[in-house]
Amino acid sequence: MRKIKLIWDFRGEAAAKTAEHHDIHLKEYLEKEKITLEKTGFEIINEMHAIAFIVVEEKDMITFRDVLKPHRGEVYTAN
Fold first, then answer.
1. Which domain of life is it from (predicted)?
2. What's the order of all strands across the beta sheet hosting 72-75?
3. What is the distance between the alpha carbons of residues 47 and 27, in angstroms, rounded to a whole number?
């Protein structure tokens, strides 16, 4: 089954801190809903752009998209 990486983009001088904080909220949501997923996290793209993300199975993508409202998504490939 393919996995989808749902992504929230943050830009500006506070992007890294904002993405890190958003990741905390994603983890809190998963804990509250008792959902276990493969991966959540945040990445610093450059000094003015960072992302928070959650990886879900493709079959569950619509549900997570509608509840969490990510900015975009892409097919997940493990590094």
1. Bacteria
2. 39-46, 49-57, 3-11, 72-75
3. 24
Read out DSSP for 28-61? HHHHHHT---SEEEEEEEETTEEEEEEEEEGGGH
Q: Which residues pair with 3 in a beta bridge?
A: 57
d(CA 71, CA 75): 14
Q: What residue type is 44 in one-letter code?
A: I
Specify the pLDDT at position 79: 65
Kindly report the pTM of this predicted structure: 0.93
CA distances to 10, 62, 70, 74 from 31, rounded to whole Å, are 23, 19, 18, 24
